[in-house]
Design brief:
Blueprint lengths: L13 E6 L10 H18 L1 E8 L3 E8 L4 H20 L12 E4 L3 H6 L1
Antiparallel strand pairs: 1-3, 1-4, 2-3
Helix pairs in contact: 1-2
Length: 117
């Protein structure tokens, strides 16, 4: 079954959620969070995505961001995911996927949802 296309509109904020596979931890210590945050910042600059807010939980992340073009969030998340999974698997001597499928995203269409975030 083909993937449904993502709706990403340049200049409109999006809520991104990415979960650990089977809701398992994706951060085991503060160093993991620092590494993820560093690569998030680097990739946001590289792909011209504005990061407005974030929440790093032990088994998932929430991001509030605005893309500069229709493909920049996907490119940012792909790059970030590859770097972080490589780091996490090497650090904890594990193999395989870390993420539960693709990241979830939705447009922030009204102020009440924005305030909720």
């Amino acid at each position: 079954m083909p993937r449904r296309p993502r709706v990403s509109i340049p200049g409109y904020a999006e809520h991104i959620i990415q979960r650990g596979n089977n809701r398992q931890p994706i951060f085991a210590c503060d160093e993991d969070i620092k590494a993820y945050a560093y690569w998030l910042g680097e990739d946001a600059k590289k792909f011209e995505v504005s990061i407005h807010a974030w929440v790093f939980m032990t088994n998932h992340v929430h991001l509030l961001c605005t893309p500069s073009s229709t493909t920049t969030i996907s490119k940012m998340m792909r790059s970030l995911g590859r770097q972080y999974v490589r780091y996490f698997n090497y650090t904890y001597q594990r193999t395989g996927t870390l993420w539960e499928g693709r990241f979830k995203s939705c447009l922030v269409q009204d102020q009440s949802y924005l305030f909720h975030l």
